Automatic annotation (TrEMBL):
One of its GO terms (molecular function) is RNA binding. Coiled coil: none annotated. Residues 481-573 form the DYW domain. PPR repeats lie at residues 65-99, 166-199, 235-269, 301-336, 337-371. The gene is LOC100779141. It holds the Pfam family PPR_2. GO terms for biological process: chloroplast RNA processing; RNA modification. This is DYW domain-containing protein. Belongs to the PPR family. PCMP-H subfamily.
Length: 573
């Protein structure tokens, strides 16, 4: 059998059985020593993910060239056999074979898929040793690997070195920033377009996800306009991403419009819309949508129930949440995992039913994680349950001794109770372990720009006007009955100092700036990386009434819509 006829037969193979028949003919005819035939046979096995057959053939070959090694490395990578991929690549290097721009991307992608940064850096050294960093495919693979391993600085350095960047590489880099710095992600998207690279639907999904993380409504509208202008269809992936984007940018109505426009919806799309209602405290709407989903014969999954229970928790729908939780396995054959238990602990804890929450935890058969204990600790903070808080905190510190948030939360509970010696003890522990409290930040959009504020911030160019507006507001609010709630200043200082510290919280500064810079009739939208404090919540309600402005606040847990002196959360958050 000649090489051409053998290759023709292999091209027509539809399954592994056919490939084995051709293999048997090749062996019988004595043409297996022809590397062209051997490599094609090896490649065909690999393409059909018959990795054991491929390796048996590879191992029996007396001659191998660089293509033979590349096909085998790539075969292991495509089959998801990471150990086989690494081992074959190591053997390639030991045999003195020079890796090429076909082999290296496969190994680098294996590092990416395993988020194996240690081996990834070793492969990077191999790339440097063989002078292949200038190769587009190799460098793009390294950028992708570092991005997925969340080493964005290294990914960025390599990205900037690339002489030519294709759409895929731009998309990877934008996605890397979307996971850790959504603002930079959108800056990079603008730069990509300026350099003449036209985004496709995949790139727009990445941009939409960045808009969601940043909560930037003006960018969300731009992304939506671009998608409509270019005629991208609202398939399940893009449509679901846009539902999430609008929900996290503060417009559940726009999210629902996208949902209704989607011709095809799967369980993920329905779950995203249920979650959107949950973020905004619209628990009853979430429940109605869940029933509509069932009537459309869409079966709920674990994600659906997490979204639904979250919505019940943030709307104070206790009995409904309990009913849905109990129905998961009995009616829908969805076994609850730790995320569902966490939602239930949060639901019961917010309602002050901490004994029930603790019983639920004790009866769990699934492994407990830090989110579960955090939910219980958060409920203890709301209801000042010191003893239970200590139990939850001890479990948290065992699981995550290096997470500063756990120390801060327990310290705040002690501070609220006036136990300053214990506060000092926990702050000393943080210092000894070199842990730092996560600073509170608030962002606001004005004229398509995003501004950032911290407590007591005076870095803004209009700082003088902002503080004048803030002091004017506070005087108006005090005349209307506002009394600063200094319980939310968790430091052992004089009452007057506590009031001054409250007055300059980052969300208050952002709202004052919004009143100066955003025209009347437009809502003031702000985002905060931590939970909004009770005093700022009261402040926002009163400002919305006195100034007749709609204020939308996205905090770490949910959205608050302030209008005419009330909040959409019903003071339950």
């Amino acid at each position: 059998m000649g090489a051409e006829s053998c290759i023709d037969l292999l091209l027509r193979c539809r399954n592994v059985f056919h490939i084995r028949q051709v293999h048997a003919h090749v062996v019988a005819n004595g043409t297996l020593q022809d590397l062209v035939i051997a490599n094609k046979l090896l490649y065909t096995y690999a393409q059909h993910k018959a990795i054991d057959d491929a390796y048996s053939l590879f191992d029996g070959l007396t001659m191998r060239d660089s293509k033979t090694w590349s096909v085998m490395v790539g075969g292991f990578a495509k089959a998801g056999d990471h150990a086989g991929c690494y081992a074959t690549f190591r053997e390639l290097l030991r045999c003195g074979v020079t890796p090429d721009n076909y082999t290296l991307p496969f190994v680098i992608r294996t590092c990416r898929d395993r988020t194996d940064l240690q081996i990834g850096r070793v492969i990077h050294d191999v790339v440097l040793k063989h002078g292949l960093l200038s190769d587009h495919f190799v460098c793009a693979s390294l950028v992708d690997m570092y991005a997925k391993c969340i080493v964005v600085e290294d990914a960025q350095r390599l990205f900037e070195r690339m002489l030519s960047k294709d759409l895929v590489t731009w998309t990877v880099m934008i996605g890397a920033y979307a996971d850790c710095n959504a603002y930079e992600s959108l800056v990079l998207f603008d730069r990509m377009r300026e350099e003449g690279v036209v985004p496709d639907k995949v790139a727009m999904v990445t941009v939409v996800n960045a808009c969601a993380k940043l909560g930037a409504m003006h960018r969300a509208r731009f992304a939506n306009d671009y998608i409509v202008r270019n005629g991208f269809s609202l398939d399940v992936i893009l449509g679901t991403a846009m539902i999430d984007m609008y929900a996290k940018c503060g417009s559940v109505e726009s999210a629902r419009e996208v949902f209704d426009r989607m011709k095809e919806k799967n369980v993920i799309s329905w779950s995203a819309m249920i979650a959107a209602y949950g973020y905004h405290g619209r628990g009853k709407d979430a429940i109605d949508l869940f029933h509509m989903m069932l009537s459309c014969a869409i079966l709920p999954n674990r994600v659906t129930f997490v979204s639904l229970l979250y919505a019940c928790s943030h709307a104070g729908l206790i009995e409904e949440g309990l009913r849905f939780f109990n129905s998961m396995w009995e009616e829908h054959a969805v076994r609850p995992d730790v995320k569902h238990y966490t939602c239930m602990v949060d639901l019961l804890g917010r309602a002050g039913r901490l004994d029930e929450a603790l019983r639920l935890i004790e009866a769990m058969t699934v492994e407990k994680d830090e989110r579960l204990w955090s939910a219980l600790l958060g409920a203890c903070r709301i209801h000042s349950k010191m003893e239970l808080a200590e139990k939850a905190a001890n479990s948290l510190l065992e699981l995550q001794p290096q997470n500063p948030g756990h120390y801060v939360l327990l310290s705040n509970i002690y501070a609220k109770a006036g136990k300053w010696e214990k506060v000092a003890k926990f702050r000393d522990m943080m210092t000894q372990r070199k842990l730092k409290k996560i600073p509170g930040w608030t962002w606001i959009e004005v004229d398509n720009k995003t501004y950032q504020f911290s407590v007591g911030d005076r870095s803004h160019p209009q700082s003088k006007e902002i503080y004048e507006m803030l002091m004017s507001l506070i005087k108006k609010l005090e005349m209307a009955g506002y009394v600063p709630d200094t319980d939310f200043v968790l430091q052992d200082v004089e009452e007057e100092v506590k009031q001054e510290m409250l007055y300059t919280h980052s969300e208050k500064l952002a709202i004052a700036f919004g009143l100066i810079a955003i025209p009347e009739g437009e809502p003031i939208r702000i985002s905060k990386n931590l939970r909004v404090c009770g005093d700022c919540h009261t402040f926002s309600k009163m400002v919305s009434s006195i100034m007749r402005r709609s204020i939308i606040v996205r905090d770490a847990n949910r959205f608050h819509h302030f209008n005419d002196g009330t909040c959409s959360c019903g003071d339950y958050w």
